[in-house]
Design brief:
Blueprint lengths: L11 H23 L4 H19 L3 E5 L4 E6 L6 E7 L8 E5 L5 E3 L1 H6 L3 E3 L6 E3 L11
Antiparallel strand pairs: 1-2, 1-4, 2-3, 4-5, 6-7
């Protein structure tokens, strides 16, 4: 009497299911692991959200970021500033920063912010934020 051996190994369908589950898990975990932790990235996200709001609303929008990290996006269509969005980021500024975003997608720092922004640079056409390294002072000669 021959006793049949049970099949060993895995089927192609089982392998595909496992690979799909691993891929889905990686897709969910990757953004959290790859997210930049610099304050600059928070400003980039805020400027991007404010730019999108200005384009959608068809009006100039103001993004104001305070020294405590509190920010708000305000519309300019009404006489009283209308707060569209607000929130908080990690504090990183020494002075309040105000970015004006037009409905055409361009942006600029207001005059006081441009003078006090330090190493934060804003491309007026693409609204990309870049931080330039602050120059190091040479050590004093003894």
């Amino acid at each position: 009497m021959n006793i049949p051996n049970p099949p060993r190994g895995v089927t192609l369908i089982e392998m595909v299911v496992v690979l799909v589950l691993i891929g889905m898990t990686a897709a969910l975990a990757a953004p959290a692991l790859l997210r930049p932790a610099r304050a600059e990235s928070g400003v980039r996200e805020l400027v991007s959200a404010a730019r999108e709001a200005a384009i959608r609303r068809g009006e100039t929008v103001y993004l104001r970021i305070g020294t405590s990290g509190e920010w708000r996006i305000e519309g300019s269509a009404s006489a009283v500033p209308e707060v569209l969005l607000s929130g908080r980021v990690d504090p990183f500024l020494e002075h309040t920063l105000t970015v004006l975003l037009s409905p055409t997608g361009s942006c600029a720092l207001d005059a006081p912010s441009a003078m006090t922004a330090g190493d934060i640079r804003l491309d007026p056409l693409t609204c990309e934020v870049a931080a330039q390294p602050t120059p190091r002072r040479p050590a004093a000669a003894r």
